[in-house]
Amino acid sequence: xxxxxxxxxxxxxxxxxxxxxxxxxxxxxxxxxxxxxxxxxxxxxxxxxxxxxxxxxxxxxxxxxxxxxxxxxxxxxxxxxxxxxxxxxxxxxxxxxxxxxxxxxxxxxxxxxxxxxxxxxxxxxxxxxxxxxxxxxxxxxxxxxxxxxxxxxxxxxxxxxxxxxxxxxxxxxxxxxxxxxxxxxxxxxxxxxxxxxxxxxxxxxxxxxxxxxxxxxxxxxxxxxxxxxx
Length: 230
Known about the structure:
Blueprint: H1 4-14, H2 19-27, H3 29-40, H4 54-63, E1 67-69, E2 81-83, H5 91-110, H6 116-131, H7 137-148, H8 159-179, H9 191-216, H10 221-229
Helix pairs in contact: 1-2, 1-10, 2-9, 6-8, 7-8, 7-9, 8-9, 9-10
């Protein structure tokens, strides 16, 4: 049983002219570039933010839609209030954004109670990481099979390939499971549960990227739509 990733790879293999558009989606490079353009480059002036833009992303996610007093005197009469995420349009806006960001970062660090959801995520990640720190051979095979949809017999699987894939994907899979576990998640998930959750969500992200690509480049739609609708 093939998945969306398999079909996309097959399409890129069969049609070299599409590879420049498809390969970044398959490798995740497109998502990293989009993240950089959205949260790293536009906020390069911001102090006390981490270099990868994760702090900025979380700040905007939590506070971006809140309305505050417009710090820009030129537009204050027309727009007395603006959203936090709309602030960095001037030096006044940047200054106010910086103050709000510093306050948020200080509050998020200094709050002894913390965000309950964030605490739960960190706790689950710690438990998962501890449990699967030294996965068994059987666990590794389950992880490999779920990520690749490979149901073949054990002797047909190259364990070197499994180890290589595990090293690259394991931390990301655990992070994703901890942040957003599937519905009816078992109390004591197995490694294959983590892998299946990861594989499904990667397919969802890839499908969203393919839809976006088909929208931006109509000339590719004849090739992409069968993947998206299939």
